[in-house]
Prior knowledge:
The protein is mostly helical. The chain has 8 helices and 3 strands.
Amino acid sequence: MNLQRIAAIAAITGVVLGGAAVVALGAAAYNAGQPEPELVYTAIDDSAEPQPEHTAGATTAGLGESGKLDSGEPGTGAMAADYNPYLDPANAEYVTPEERSEWLGKQAVIRKCMADAGFEFLEWQWWLGEKAQPRGLDFETSVLWVQALSGPNLYSPGGGCAGVGDKAEAEARAAGKPLTAPVPDDDPTQPTERQVWLDFQDLVRACMTEAGQEYLYWEWWNPVYQEPIDLANPDAPRNPPAQPEGLTEAEKAAWTLALDGNAGGGAAYRWEDAGCWGRAVHESGNDNMH
């Protein structure tokens, strides 16, 4: 487990806490039919890249003989970077206006609780890739923010303002009057979560180029970019999608060091030592080193 690097989209939706991250997990649990969790303090295991579910009917472009997209070839249709499945009524992952309203109603309860505790809690529409924690917090303040939200134990969230929101949501549903709040109109000019991710990848790629390493284009949501699982050895490690093929073990080690660096954890974390990934997280304003 690499505690300095934040896997995939978590890097741009969470704030680094010295090698761990405050990660918005709302979408994943929401789609699993579970209660929507709040931001939690968690270490991200990036030993394997995320494996997004392939939406039925999705189209891709630029398929080569190997079945993979040619390097730098973006997906199209439901795999396009400007496509947001949560806003498409024809997609199984669509979030209805009623569901958005209840979510925002719950967030309003949490926001008041956080304000009473002395912390800002931003408007959080997870289906747009937003996050609730303000940027620019220092390390100590970011930890206190998470504790106010999710309780004092960073590694076992429970209680805090998130618990207040859960209680209000349950009581409102039991009374037959779910929480509600006005839902802002969709802004067609707002970048999608995927587009923000690609901008982040551009920062990583530029840094890797400076370090003399090639960093391939890839899309975390597009299964065509994922290396197929070896059914004969499903636990075998797979190369990162951005890593060029044909590298020796020594070259892979150099590539990984350039990407991940060798930073400390907790208050000892320094983005300058966290490789190109840590640098990109810092340059995009998503760590607590400002």
